[in-house]
Amino acid sequence: MMESQRWCQHILIAAVFLSCVFAIFYMYYSPTINRLHCPALQVSKHNVCADACINHSQIRNNTCAVNLTVLNNQLKEAKPSSPSQSETLLLIWMRPFGQNIAWESCSSQFQIEGCQLTDDRNLFNTAHGILFHHRDIHQDLSNMPTLPRPYFQKWVWMNMESPSNSGLIPGLNALFNLTTSYRRDSDITVPYGQTSERSADDRTYQIPQKEKFICWIVSNWNPDHERSKYYEKLKEHVSVETFGKSFNRYVSDGDYPKLVSICKFYLSFENSIHEDYITEKLFNPMTLGTVPVVLGPSRKNYERFIPADSFIHVDDFKTAGELAEHLKVLHQNTDMYVKYFGWRERHAVRGTLFGLEQACRSCDHIRRNRNYRTVNDLNTWYWG
């Protein structure tokens, strides 16, 4: 009888052991959550993932941790590591436009600590975040990751082009956790440029010597663009010196700063008009000491980014002819012209380090925000 009881005990222990082993095997080798079908709750223009998604992750990584400690520790060696509290790793899945960007330290460039950038795809399972550039995503998503996404990993959608210049790609809804773009309603907003307050001992500014009146560099000419239509009207009243591929007067990267700096005015005309879409066409001339004449979103929108007395908006005038007359007056009156540089005693301006800045600020956002969320309807939010 005693022998029989001992055999029953052994069989029971073995059954319990095998059951837990089977449970552990299922937990770590079953498919992860389908990233395209996470139930979500509508919150503003983005969405927060429902508790069901989070609970699923927690259950998969905690079951049997007490009863089978040794076996669990062995399995942990094969699963993706959880986020480090000391350093956050961001993987740049595709280099924006294929550019060779030096992934410098976020600390030295932006005073962002605790972030590491890489483009080594072998680190996919350990990366806390993945950065995807919209213009480099294939229409069929064939160049996107195929491995199951670790539960702690955030996918960041990056796009600095306007909706008019961005192709809508099917299958992107509910694929990403965060967005970074020029728009102020992105999760991580990175404008094309920004101003900062000057220190008290750095408030003198010398306007560059001017040799030209009005300049414009254009590489992409489209007669249907608003900027092209306005230029055609403006040139009827005032001379505009044009450069760029569209006018068979190529300007190299090396020649660009010198050329723009010697122009009194530069036509900072955007190729499409959208809220917050204010590009390097504005910030580069401002940096080089030229007064920008802007065509894009409203003056009010511009003033969210730059001082009101730093630019001239085409909407300030009823016609292109009135704008031309105003520019002629400023061209002849030095005292009136230099007033457009008064803001430089208070502010400095700089452009964005394209690619690097989006990566560093996305990494910093992930480091500081551990909560889970998903962008459930990217297409409607961005393209409307």
From TrEMBL:
Pathway of action: Protein modification; protein glycosylation; Glycolipid biosynthesis
Main localization category: Golgi
Catalytic activity, as annotated: an alpha-L-Fuc-(1->2)-beta-D-Gal-(1->4)-beta-D-GlcNAc derivative + GDP-beta-L-fucose = an alpha-L-Fuc-(1->2)-beta-D-Gal-(1->4)-[alpha-L-Fuc-(1->3)]-beta-D-GlcNAc derivative + GDP + H(+); an N-acetyl-alpha-neuraminyl-(2->3)-beta-D-galactosyl-(1->4)-N-acetyl-beta-D-glucosaminyl derivative + GDP-beta-L-fucose = an alpha-Neu5Ac-(2->3)-beta-D-Gal-(1->4)-[alpha-L-Fuc-(1->3)]-beta-D-GlcNAc derivative + GDP + H(+); a neolactoside nLc4Cer + GDP-beta-L-fucose = a neolactoside III(3)-alpha-Fuc-nLc4Cer + GDP + H(+); a beta-D-galactosyl-(1->4)-N-acetyl-beta-D-glucosaminyl derivative + GDP-beta-L-fucose = a beta-D-galactosyl-(1->4)-[alpha-L-fucosyl-(1->3)]-N-acetyl-beta-D-glucosaminyl derivative + GDP + H(+)
EC number: 2.4.1.-
Classification via Gene3D superfamilies: Glycosyl transferase family 10, C-terminal domain
Sequence intervals crossing the membrane: 12-29
Swiss-Prot/TrEMBL keywords: Disulfide bond, Glycoprotein, Glycosyltransferase, Golgi apparatus, Lipid metabolism, Membrane, Signal-anchor, Transferase, Transmembrane, Transmembrane helix
Protein's UniProt name: Fucosyltransferase
Organism: Triplophysa tibetana
